Amino acid sequence: MFNNLQIMYAIINDKSKYLFEPPEYYPLNISTEGRQLKQLFGKDVLVRYGNVGDEWLWHLHMKVNDVCNAKCPFCIESENPIIKYDEDKYLKMAEKVLNEQYNAGILFSTSITGGEPLLFGKLDELLTITDKFNLFLTINTNGHYIKKNINVLNRHKIDFLNISMHSHIPSENNAVMGIKPLSIDELSWIKSNFNGLIRIQCVMMKGGVDTYDKMLEFMNYYKDIAYDFSFRNLIGVNESISESINKFTNEHRIDFRSILDEVYQNGELVVQEIQDYYIYETWNLNGFSTTFSYSNMDILLKSESIEDVHISREFILHPDSVYSSSWDKNNKLKIIYKQP
Ligand SMILES: C[S@@+](CC[C@H](N)C(=O)[O-])C[C@H]1O[C@@H](n2cnc3c(N)ncnc32)[C@H](O)[C@@H]1O
Ligand code: SF4
Are residues 242 and 79 in contact, defined by beta-carbon separation less than 8 angstroms? Predict the structure, then answer.
């Protein structure tokens, strides 16, 4: 039906215009059309035109480390060797990068992620830097070190703590993450003591939240904790990168489309946002704002291998302080911190 679809960036608010096709059916978008030229660190980048508020267009991902206390079998971080990066260098680079994006007019939001970002030793200092930019800020965390860091977190402007939970049944969540899940009492304590909002985020997979009804049970279980919910599909990695993650993700991936079809029947569409290789859609479901995201990494890899290198979809500050406009830091814009 969408064979001729050329929309690789679209924002759809009207349910009658909702696109059912997954991104694998979209043609590759390697065109520079619809992009504006900006300069970052004196280098050209081509970014989408957007409006202030286009969270994902003008977003900086700060990946502060790649160490973690958990062992999720679908996550590349669980296989990383433990490398101690230079955190002072990271802080200096973070400030430079935020300034560059701000001055180029392409900074709306940022997220702090990892590894487990609450294991980053200089979180207080990093948040002092982000405060200066008054950004929409989220932190992705497995939740285990929130209580210990609550005073640090509350000293700063943090909009959301996105806490990852992959099942409301403790034994299932434990089996996935390899750590004891936060109990409702612990989460209630966080909710009462944290100044920002809590999003419960879940990767849907077999043996966890794997059906629409189980998703509703999950939401019901966390209803007094979560301000909103976010569900995403398992992303696979190439066998050459990790055989075990490749195997786990292939064996545990669910039929996400069929869940979205039930969401379509029962929910009110807030927005469906399509950006090249991923779809991000927000629904009002049972009174909760609920976001679903799914991506096609093959499309991204293929596009990145053939398109103009200046095309930039996202900006990432990697744990070794390399700033890049690709998750593959050897692709696209690559800026290495230089001592002044
Ligand atoms: C890499 S983690 C880092 C932050 C933190 N440790 C956490 O788990 O929230 C960020 C998010 O990516 C998700 N994630 C990791 N590997 C994934 C995969 N293969 N597919 C989909 N989501 C994945 C995690 O579940 C988590 O919600
Ligand atoms: S908690 Fe986050 S970083 Fe840690 S292994 Fe799980 S997904 Fe990866």
Answer: yes
**0.85 cut: is pTM over it?**
yes
Is residue 149 a part of any domain in this protein? yes
Judged by its nearest atom, the ligand closest to the C-alpha of residue 253 is 1
Distance from C-alpha of 56 to C-alpha of 62, rounded to nearest angstrom: 14
Please name every residue paired with 137 in a beta bridge, in sequence order, or none if there are none.
110
- Ligand 1 in reach of 116 Cβ (< 6 A): yes
CATH no. for residue 106?
3.20.20.70
Cα 72 to middle of ligand 2, angstroms: 6
How far apart, in whole angstroms, are the C-alpha atoms of residue 324 and residue 163? Answer: 26
Residue 64, in any domain of the structure:
yes
Pocket of ligand 2 contains residue 201 by CB under 6 Å:
no
Non-local (6+) Cβ contacts of 10 within 8 A are 19, 272, 273, 274
Query: Is 122 a domain residue?
Result: yes
In a domain, 137, yes or no: yes
What's the distance, Cα to Cα, between the start and end of the chain in Å? 55
Alpha carbon 337 to chain centroid, angstroms:
24
User: Domain count of the chain?
Assistant: 1
Position 295 confidence tier, pLDDT thresholds 50, 70, 90: confident
Looking at residue 232, the DSSP 8-state letter turns out to be E
Mutate to test the pocket of ligand 1, among 68, 75, 112 (most ligand atoms within 8 A of CB): 75
Range of the domain at 210: 36-326
Using one digit for the tens of pLDDT, what is the confidence trace for 233-267? Answer: 999 888 888 999 999 999 999 999 999 999 999 99
Cβ-in-10-Å burial (0-12, 13-18, 19+) of 292 comes to buried
